[in-house]
Design goal:
With about 425 residues, this protein is α+β, with helices and mostly antiparallel strands. The chain contains ten helices and 13 strands. Strands 1-2-5-4 form a four-stranded antiparallel beta sheet, with no helix packed on it.
Length: about 425
């Protein structure tokens, strides 16, 4: 395979997306390509905000199998996950603040002993007294990658938590550059499917050394390549991007009650669980009025900011809601032969979004306000959806220098919704 690519510019919208390149010249070959699109965005955010996008997420479950059997099945399933999704065994290289793009580097497995050595480091069992919140908090305090002697840096680890009374936990700890919401759920689904299949073959029988073929292509290639109308519609979209991010009014913001950090690096989890009946009713009513759950939750965030700020009508129109983290998953747009179940990598695009409060009435009921905001958000997405294959074009703005701040956040099982 040959690496191709250049920097996308307004004058060259059709640039070949870099693909995996084979590098020889040492004992074993390896494969590399630059981080692209949201992969690079998430890596830059992690560097800038001290691991903000690194995630520790997982599930708890019960099993009638003995603990040793559960461990053996989980270990075999994780080895199979490396074969199907070898991105979990890559290294990320490159200067975090320099001009050279950060890149993935993958070395195919050359022997079963090499696979065993990697598994011993990447798959861990933990005796846990079902205090899973403490486990997630402690794990999230660790900055990636894991460093071990005589081994490459480890960016992704799987934990099997062994509780009492046949209760277990299965958790991933890795970078958001790999662990997008939908792809991460798909990876867990694969592992649990393999763990519960009595007829599953041992991972040692897989054709190791060929697994590099399963490395994910970039976002443009995986979604079918540039659109045929890119020269017109794509360039028009590019022209709109700078204007869409200009702030002409005051953004709504939430100021914390405390003005200093009380525990540097400690993570906090706020949890609200809706029962199945309430969830079903909420989903049904949202669909009836023509919106998605993503529209609803984003509108609810805006409502929370409005409640916190208590804007008087006299200044209402001088504010706007800035949804600058609004994301669209690319997984539903993958084209054959790319398998959505094994496309385990950050795969989304972000839409710059400003909702002027002039579009929202300050005097109607909160329910009506919520619907007005959801409608405005839906319109923003609809206006940009036809041409959103611009993921790699938004990368240069994310090449930021690292921060020396102490702020830290983590996934903690909170997955972004897909549209």
């Amino acid at each position: 395979m040959r690496a191709r690519g250049s920097i996308a510019t307004m004058n060259a919208p059709h640039y070949p997306e870099p693909t995996w390149m084979r590098i020889s010249g040492r004992k074993t070959p390896f494969y590399t390509r630059p981080l692209l699109g949201s992969e690079l965005f998430d890596d830059r955010t992690s560097v800038l905000l001290d691991g903000m996008t690194d995630a520790c997420v997982g599930f708890t479950f019960q099993s009638l199998y003995a603990a040793d059997e559960v461990k053996q099945r989980a270990r075999n399933a994780f080895a199979k996950l490396r074969f199907s999704c070898p991105i979990i065994a890559t290294n990320i290289v490159g200067d975090v603040s320099g001009p050279i793009p950060r890149s993935w580097v993958y070395a195919p497995v050359q022997s079963l002993s090499e696979l065993t050595h990697w598994m011993n480091d990447a798959f861990c069992t933990v005796q846990q007294d079902l205090n899973f919140n403490t486990f997630v908090e402690d794990t999230s305090l660790r900055r990636l990658p894991y460093q071990s002697q005589n081994a490459s840096p480890l960016w992704f680890r799987c934990y099997l938590l062994l509780g009492s009374n046949n209760k277990y936990g299965l958790y991933f700890h890795g970078p958001h550059a790999i662990m997008d919401g939908g792809p991460t759920l798909n990876a867990f689904a694969l592992m649990l499917q393999w763990m519960t299949n009595d007829a599953i073959e041992p991972a040692e029988n897989l054709p190791w050394g060929t697994e590099w073929h399963n490395l994910p292509l970039g976002p443009v290639s995986a979604t079918g390549g540039p659109r045929e109308d890119w020269d017109i519609a794509g360039i028009e979209l590019l022209k709109q991007l700078p204007d869409s991010e200009v702030a002409r009014t005051i953004p709504l913001a939430a100021r914390p009650f405390r003005m200093s950090q009380s525990a540097v690096g400690k993570t906090c989890r706020l949890e609200r669980v809706l029962d199945p009946a309430s969830t079903r009713r909420l989903v049904n009513k949202t669909q009836i009025v023509g919106y998605s759950m993503s529209h609803l939750f984003e509108a609810a965030y805006c409502m929370a900011l409005l409640t916190r700020n208590q804007l008087p009508p006299s200044v209402w129109n001088t504010y706007h809601f800035l949804g600058n983290s609004s994301a669209i998953s690319l997984i539903p747009h993958l084209k054959l032969p790319y398998d959505t179940k094994t496309h385990f990598i950050s795969s989304r695009t972000h839409i710059p979004m400003q909702i002027s409060m002039a579009e929202i009435s300050p005097t109607v009921s909160p329910r009506r306000q919520l619907l007005q905001i959801a409608h405005a958000i839906k319109q923003k997405y609809t206006s940009q959806m036809p041409c959103r294959k611009d993921q790699t074009l938004r990368v240069p703005s994310t090449t930021l220098a690292p921060s020396s701040g102490d702020f830290r956040c983590h996934g903690k099982g909170v997955m972004p919704l897909s549209r």
